[in-house]
Design a protein that fits this description.
The complex is a heterodimer of chains A (about 110) and B (about 140). Chain A has 3 helices and 4 strands, in the order αββββαα. Chain A has about 110 residues and is an alpha+beta fold. Chain A has a 3-stranded antiparallel sheet, covered by helices on one side. The two termini of chain A are about 15 Å apart. The relative contact order of chain A is 0.18. In chain B, β6 and β7 form a beta hairpin. Chain B starts with a strand and ends in a 5-residue tail after the last strand. Classes of the chains: A alpha+beta (about 110), B alpha/beta (about 140). The interface between A and B is medium-sized, with 38 and 31 residues. β4 of chain A pairs antiparallel with β1 of chain B, so a sheet runs across the interface.
């Protein structure tokens, strides 16, 4: 992604993900997030020249990651309360919506 | 939000059979049944089955086509049991760390990564970057 504070605003404040300590020495700024209870983590790097989807919108068949949630209905309602305009077709598409919103800075 | 875990990552490739040859034949991942979608592809099971890699064949999507190993670009990481065993296994499949960067068999080793765990990076045939890492250097 291209802007750290906008990313933090989205993943920390909107999605309420938990930030992890991130070691120094990577050469680029970024944030690590805890996903669920176990090991899985999401690592975010600020780097404008890397592979970004900058000029693209929701595309369910393009690169993305999927978060397994407890309830489709609760997640849809929760996203509505957070960002409005949830794209409801399947859980996978909800996640795509999240990626999309992050890309456009909402 | 009650997020349980990362369920899958979806990556895109140019061509199906070469991808199957790599993930099924070289990495020995287990294929899953995949419903019919608009695009051809393959699903793979990771670990004990809670997590998956989804691959779509789609030349017009976000590919890293002209790029090589770049640890700071998009990739996914697979946790393995042993750095040493994984290194040996990859070497047995033709990956080497002394090749030039623009070689698909290039393997990049980071036994002392600032991440705090040892890492090995390789590319799939479409330049998707795969990281292997384990808790401690053995």
């Amino acid at each position: 992604l291209t802007n750290l504070e906008r990313a933090r605003q989205f993943y920390t404040n909107v999605l309420e993900m938990q930030e992890l300590d991130r070691p120094e020495g990577f050469g680029h700024s970024g944030i690590w997030y805890q996903i669920g209870d176990g090991q899985p983590q999401l690592h975010i790097l600020v780097r404008s020249e890397a592979t970004l989807r900058r000029d693209k919108w929701i595309d369910l068949a393009d690169i993305h990651f999927a978060l397994r949630v407890q309830s489709y209905r609760d997640t849809a309602a929760w996203l509505d309360s957070k960002v409005c305009l949830t794209y409801r077709i399947s859980t996978r598409q909800l996640v795509q919506q999240i990626v999309y919103r992050q890309n456009v800075g909402l | 939000m009650n997020t349980l875990y990362i369920h899958h990552v979806l990556i895109v490739v140019d061509e199906l059979e070469r991808t199957r040859q790599f993930y099924t034949g070289v990495l020995e991942l287990e294929e899953l049944r995949r419903p019919n979608f608009e695009y051809p592809g393959i699903w793979y099971k990771i670990g004990d089955g809670e997590q998956e890699i989804h691959i779509n064949v789609r030349s017009d999507a976000t590919l890293r086509r002209d790029k090589w190993i770049d640890r700071n670009d998009i990739h996914f990481a697979l946790r393995v049991n042993s750095y040493r065993d994984t290194l040996e296994s990859l070497r047995g499949k033709g990956f080497r760390d002394d090749l030039p960067d623009n070689d698909l068999q290039k393997m990049q080793l980071r036994p002392n990564s600032p991440a705090g765990y040892p890492q090995i990076y390789i590319l799939d045939p479409d330049r998707n970057t795969i990281e292997f890492h384990c808790a401690n250097l053995d």
